[in-house]
Specification:
Layout (H helix, E strand, L loop, with lengths): L1 H13 L21 E4 L18 H6 L9 E4 L2 E4 L15 E5 L13 E4 L40 E4 L1 E13 L10 E4 L2 E12 L9 E4 L2 E4 L7 E6 L11 E4 L2 E4 L4 E3 L6 E6 L2 E4 L14 E2 L7 E6 L2 E3 L4 E2 L8 E5 L3 E3 L11 E2 L5 H5 L5 E3 L2 E3 L5
Parallel strand pairs: 1-2, 2-4, 3-5, 4-6, 5-7, 6-8, 7-9, 8-10, 9-11, 9-12, 10-13, 11-14, 12-15, 13-16, 14-17, 15-18, 16-19, 17-20, 18-21, 19-22, 20-23, 23-24
Antiparallel strand pairs: 25-26
Amino acid sequence: MDRVRLCLVWVLFACGAVSASAVPGEVGYAGRQGVTLYVSKAGGNSDGRSWSSAFRTIQAALNAVPDDGGGHRVIVRPDHYMEPNLETPHKGAPGAYNLLIGDVDGRLGSGAQGWVVIDAGDPNLGFKSWDWWSNMRASTTEWSRGNNQTNFSCIVWDRWALRNLYATGGDAGLFWDLTHESGGGFTVLVEDCVGIGRAFGGGLCYPTVRPDEPSVFRRCYFLALDWRGDTAAVLIGGWETTMPQAPHVVFEDCTLVHPDNAVQASYASKCVRARFEDCRMIVLNFSQPTISPSTGIICSERAPQLLHVDLKDCILAGYHVFGAGGHDEKISYTTEGRVQAYLQFEQTAPAGFERLGAWPTELFFRIAPPQVKGGVIEWPAWR
C-alpha cells in the first residue's frame, strides 16, 4: 500500500497537482509513516495509541516517540496543559518531520474545539518569569541565575513541525536555543501558533543555515512582555562568522508585538539573516526622544553588522525602524513589494519604506492574539 501511495504522490508531483511536504498527514507527504500518539486529560494514560488510551500530558507522549526515523505525530486534545520545559528524545528526519499538533477543530477525533494551551507558569502562583524557564526546554550552566543546573539544547527539536498551539506562562514561548550545541543544523516549522513570554514570544538562536531548509514561522502571533535588554517579540541569532546568502529563519504572515523591539538579534549572536513576508511588527514605545525612546522596531544593539533582514509586503509601527545602539554601522536590509512604516514624527523612514502619516487603525487591531471560535482560528480584522 505504501508503494502505491508513493507512486501516486510522485505522479501528482509530476503534473504539478501537489507540492512535496515533509509533514506527516499533509497532501504531498511521501516520507516515512511513524506512530501516532494522542494526548487528552480524559485519556486512559496507558499506551497513547488511541484517544481512549491517550496520555494525559504532552511530555508523556513526547517521551513515547520511539526513534529518529521521523514521520511521528503527537495529537493533543484542546485543553490547558500546565507543562513547562518540553523536550523530546528524538528528532525528525529529512523529508519526514515529526508533528506536534493541537486538534483545534476536533477533526482529528478529540471531540473538542479550541486552543491547546501549553502553560509554563506555576499552577498555583501564576506567571513564572525565571531565566531559562520556558515552554521549550533549554538551559546552560554558564548562566549566572535561574534554571541553570544543566546544559540542555533545543537541538533535540530538529525537524519538528508544531501547529495549533498556544504557548505561554514563562520566560519564552515558542523559542529554541541551541545553547552548548550552537552551530548545528536546525529546522523547525511552526504554523498557526501563539507564543507569549517575558523575554521572547518566539524565535531561535545559534543554528547554522540550511539553505534549502530554513526554519519557518507561518501565521503566528508573538508577544513578549519585558522591555529591558535582550528581549523582543522574536529573538534571533546565527552562528556563521560571515553573513549567509540564505536565511536562518523565515516569518510569513506573522504578528509581532513588544514594548521595545519586534525583532532583535541576540547579544550573543554571530551573523544572522531573517526574511519577513506579509508580517506586522508593532512596538508600543513611542516615547519622546529625551525619555527612554524605543531602541528600534528591528534591533541589533551590540553589533548591527551581524544582522540582515529581507522585508516583503510588511507593515511596521514604532518609534523608529532600525536600532543600532548608537553604532556607526547600519543594519543591512532589502525591501520588496510594499513595506510601510508608521513612526514618531521626528524619525526618518529608511530608503525603500513607504511612510504612513495617518494612524494605521486596522494594524493596531492586531495587538490582540487570535481566538478560536467554532474550531476556526480567527484573527482580528486586517485589510
